[in-house]
Amino acid sequence: MSGLTTTKAPFIEKAQKDGQRFIHQPYELYSLENHAAWTELYSRIQPRWARYATPKFLAGVAQLNLDPHKVPRIEDINKFLSPLTGFSAKPVSGYIPAYIFFDCLRNRDFPTTITIRDKSKLDYLPEPDMFHDVAGHVPMHTDKAFADTLVRFGEFALSAALLIQELKDPVVRVERAKSIIKALARFFWFTVEFGLMRSGNDIKVYGSGLLSSYGEIEHSINSPEVQRYPIQLEWAINQYFEIDHYQPLLFVVDSFEHLFSLVDELEVWLKAGKLNNVAPGQPEVSDLDVESFLSAKL
Q1: Which is catalytic among the residues 88, 93, 137, 292?
Q2: 10-294 adopts what CATH topology?
Q3: Is 132 part of the annotated catalytic residue set?
């Protein structure tokens, strides 16, 4: 029985075929192997969280009362999360186009994958799964300053869509959308997904891609192969990244208030035209992502 295993879940395949982006969590479909995968992922990473994660993440884990022995129920997560910051985990069937994703953040909803990786492939998964989304992302959503920053990302996306849709030339509109989306994706990657933060004399992890990776969370802090620099906006939006190996370059913020101010600055750059032609390279921007900005109902 495949249960709700990533890439092997008939429930998800049917939802995608039916065009359902936002779904419910059919908890009864999780298999014993799904629960075992969650248990192993959770138990082995806890000591590394204690050592490398920002204290605000650890506080969030405690506040959510995540069950270490079985896949959590989304409704239970939201019961603890929503009163703290107004955020809710929102189950999805798969990839959410860029504008729709950021608009969810603006409305304090976090698109959340409900499948979990195969127990034989615990160390790396190219696409998000429930452990990445729930154990990596959601604990940070209990912190007001971080939650407000996610909302600010959503507000930036709204400003970008307004600017893009005002352009008259359809060719320019598409090219401008690709560049702005690329800049936003890179900035989100180097902060929310793979960000480091100063904590006294130490550096701690707050990025979900690191927090959900047993190997990379330690590597990000200790490895001499990783370049760690104070974040510079112009560097972050022009730096390509690849998803299939440990990250060789990471950026450090001073606080979540600092991160919030950077999103403010990003919007100033947007309106000044500084995001119109960012450096080429990864990530590739899909037609679906471009269309999500061009057709957004504003």
Answers
A1: 137
A2: Phenylalanine Hydroxylase (1.10.800)
A3: yes
255 is catalytic: no
Give the separation between CA 76 and CA 253, rounded to whole angstroms. Answer: 31
Cβ contact 49:211 at 8 Å: yes
Strand pairing partners for 77? Answer: none
- Which is catalytic among the residues 208, 212, 220, 292? 212
Distance, in Å, from the CA atom of 225 to the CA atom of 25, rounded to the nearest integer, reads 40
pTM (2 d.p.): 0.95
Which of 222, 226, 216 has its CA nearest to residue 193?
216
The catalytic position among 88, 141, 179, 193 is 193
Nearest-5° Cα angle at 247, 244 to 253: 140
Please, which residues have CB within 8 angstroms of residue 121's CB and are 6 or more apart in sequence? none
The set of residues, in sequence order, having a beta carbon less than 8 Å from that of 147 and lying 6+ positions away, is: 85, 86, 87, 108, 140, 141
Paired residues of 90 in beta bridges: 111
DSSP 28: G
Which of 55, 172, 161 lies closest to 101 in space, CA to CA?
161
The answer to whether 179 is a known catalytic residue is: no
pLDDT in tens, 130-173: 999 999 999 999 999 999 999 999 999 999 999 999 999 999 99
Helices (H), the chain: 10-17, 32-52, 55-64, 74-85, 98-106, 130, 144-166, 170-188, 208-211, 214-222, 233-238, 256-271, 287-294
Token pair for 21: 């982006």
Rg (CA), the chain: 19
Domain boundaries, the chain: 10-294
Report whether 26 contacts 4 (CB < 8 A).
yes
Q: CB within 8 A of 233, min separation 6: which ones?
A: 187, 262, 265, 266, 269
Q: Which pLDDT does position 127 carry in this prediction?
A: 79
